[in-house]
Design a protein that fits this description.
There is one protein chain. With 92 residues, the chain is mainly α. The chain has a domain of 36 residues. It has five helices and two strands, in the order αβαααβα. A two-stranded antiparallel sheet has the order 1-2. Helix 1 packs across helix 2. It starts with a helix and ends in a 7-residue tail after the last helix. 11% of the residues are buried. The mean pLDDT is 83. GO terms for molecular function: calcium ion binding; calcium-dependent protein binding; transition metal ion binding. Pfam families: S_100. InterPro entries: EF-hand-dom_pair, EF_hand_dom, S-100_dom, S100/CaBP7/8-like_CS, S100_Ca-bd_sub.
Length: 92
């Protein structure tokens, strides 16, 4: 597989691993999303100033307001964080 194909496979596997823990197997509960962030993006949470900031991030992942994070919402979050880390945010 190419590097991009490998990256995509890892994204899918990572999401599926955490989504399978509780609730529906194709969405993340708030607890699953928190665990995923804690284990897969620990520097992000360590950089948070307080717990309310972390809760705001978790609530912001649920774009459609159904109290779950689906794969599309997860991928949008990963893409946005990747752009931020690479200094390639949206141009004004």
């Amino acid at each position: 597989m190419t590097q991009l194909e490998t990256a995509m496979a890892i994204l899918m596997k990572t999401f599926d691993t955490y989504a399978a823990d509780q609730g529906k197997p194709d969405t993340l509960t708030k607890a699953e999303a928190r665990t995923l962030l804690e284990k897969e993006l620990p520097a992000l949470l360590k950089g948070a100033k307080n717990q309310a900031e972390v809760d705001k991030l978790l609530n912001g992942l649920d774009f459609n307001g159904d109290s779950e994070v689906d794969f599309t919402e997860f991928v949008v979050m990963v893409a946005a964080l990747t752009c931020a880390c690479h200094n390639r945010g949206p141009k004004k």
